[in-house]
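tool_call: predict_structure(chain=1)
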Amino acid sequence: MALWNNDLPPLPEGTVLHDSCYGPGEETDIAECREFCKAHDISYHVIDVRKAYQEEVLAYFKAEYRAGRTPNPCIRCNRFVKFGALLAGIEQMGIEYDYFCTGHYAKVVRGDESLASSFGESASSAPEGKERPVQIAVAMDATKDQAYFLYRIPSSVLEKVRFPLASMTKKEVFAFARERNLTAADRGESQDFIPSEYLDYLFSDQPSVPGDIIDLDGHVLGRHRGIEHYTIGQRRGLGVSAKEPLYVAAIDKEKNLVVLGKDEDLKCSALIADDMVWPGNYDPQTAFDAFVKIRLAAKPVEARIEPYLPQEGEHFNGNAYRVTFKEAQRAVAPGQSVVFYRDGVTSGGGIIAKSISC
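tool_result:
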């Protein structure tokens, strides 16, 4: 999967880049893969997905930050590039395959009952509810589980997807590779979607618009260098001195403000999500209980999920849902994904549109 567009400037000599999905290190990755496949008599093909990555991931990433939101580029990439443009490119080459396998830590499962019945008698009677589509479930290694990253992959695509590492721990995978003298056993993991050293350059296509940094009472505390450089919950790099730690509590795009608060000010009782996705495209349109995650590193927490009727002046992308936490959650960031889990299986999710403070 060729993403790198060779469009980032050279860095000062001696700079050590973090390994990332998008960067000059891709050329080395491709060369190593080609050599490995040649040594093991495996057909090797490179699919050019650069255009899709620029449009669906990089452009999206910049637009979301400039809108005062916190995007998740990995989720976007999985949906439109890795499980989208890449598979389309394979088909365009005329290559037929039985299964598409990746190294994600996740499982593909199929429920024993129809979707509608799993949501109860009040669930929508839409025909999709009669089906038992393929769904994503969490992997055995909970510390590396990536089901959160994959929740937007359509069930129709998942029918031919397999995750061979689902029942293995990360430690077992590396041991497996070392036993077979695979060079991959000595490689580090990708940490970012783009090297952090290039983030400023990524946003250099448009001038940043500085503005005020204020507290929750409206007092001006300092100046920010453009809202695209900040995210909810951020503490470092604010350039503001205070008697106690302050964090980004809100970002107001319309007024070009970054709002700071104390740690307790970041707690939220609920959120509103839109741009929803559901297994088999079945929207239950009813209330239900589930565990939810509001970011990859977050611990799943109990919540009540129910359809949300927009209030005057509110606009959402498709049907919106309210997620009410059993226990308040910290730093709920618009733009991130909230994913629903029932019995360890993802049963839907959406993009956080707004947070509701305690």
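agent: The first strand starts at residue 100 and ends at 101. Proceeding to next step.
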